[in-house]
């Protein structure tokens, strides 16, 4: 719910800055969970090697200009910008897992689906496709913030001690339903 530059700055650049700042503190047992989204999994964001190459360097001084050039005019659509930024988070987590793994540290991301929060309700008003996705959700409901919190707690726990570099999709099955209907399973 901002312009495309702000979306990339908060969602991807902010994630990379936070991880870079925390990286020197990583030791055996450290776990980090980044927030991504189901948006890039619903289509329209890849694979696109030229865009991915730009997304893979979010701390580059000319990052936003390079993103604009790689994605082209579509980047100014906030929905497209959001999906690409969150694809960048997915990719960032994979690379960060390789960086901090030798220290005994882990990093994962969580990708919420339709979650019943004030921001989620505000977004559904401005995006009519949200209702269609809700109807396709196999569990037949929106998620709750507690559903996402439980997933994050699991990823941070010792029970998830061998998980790193992965994204945990918390979407009630909607991505599976969309892919199945599109014949992409």
Write a structural description.
This protein has 8 helices and 3 strands. With 185 residues, the chain is mainly alpha-helical. The protein has a single domain (4-182), classed as 3-Layer(aba) Sandwich (Rossmann fold). A 3-stranded parallel beta sheet has the order 1-2-3, with helices on both faces.
Give the strand tally: 3
Discrete helix count: 8
Largest sheet: 3 strands, parallel
By helix and strand content, what is the structural category? Answer: mainly alpha
The residue fraction in helices comes out at: 40-55%
Distance between the termini: 31 Å
Strand content: 5-15%
N-to-C order of helices and strands: HEHHHEHHHEH
Shape: globular
Ranges where pLDDT stays below 50 over 5 or more residues in a row are none
Mean pLDDT: 92
Question: Strand arrangement, largest sheet?
Answer: 1-2-3
SSE order and pairing:
Blueprint: H1 4-22, E1 31-35, H2 49-55, H3 63-71, H4 78-100, E2 106-112, H5 118-126, H6 129-136, H7 145-156, E3 167-170, H8 174-182
Parallel strand pairs: 1-2, 2-3
Helix pairs in contact: 1-4, 2-3
């Amino acid at each position: 719910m901002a312009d495309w530059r702000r979306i990339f700055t908060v969602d991807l650049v902010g994630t990379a800055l936070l991880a870079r700042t925390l990286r020197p503190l990583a030791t055996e047992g450290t776990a980090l969970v980044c927030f991504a989204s189901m948006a890039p999994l619903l289509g329209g964001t890849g694979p696109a090697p030229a865009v991915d190459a730009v997304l893979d360097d979010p701390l580059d001084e000319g990052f936003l200009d390079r993103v604009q050039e790689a994605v082209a005019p579509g980047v100014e659509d906030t929905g497209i910008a959001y999906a690409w930024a969150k694809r960048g988070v997915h990719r960032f987590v994979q690379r960060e897992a390789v960086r901090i793994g030798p220290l005994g540290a882990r990093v994962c991301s969580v990708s919420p689906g339709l979650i019943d929060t004030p921001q989620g309700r505000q977004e559904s008003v401005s995006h009519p496709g949200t209702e269609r996705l809700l109807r396709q959700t196999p569990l037949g409901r929106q998620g709750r913030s507690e559903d996402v919190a439980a997933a994050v707690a699991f990823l941070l726990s010792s029970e998830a001690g061998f998980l790193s570099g992965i994204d945990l999709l918390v979407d009630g099955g909607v991505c599976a339903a969309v892919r199945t209907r599109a014949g992409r399973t």
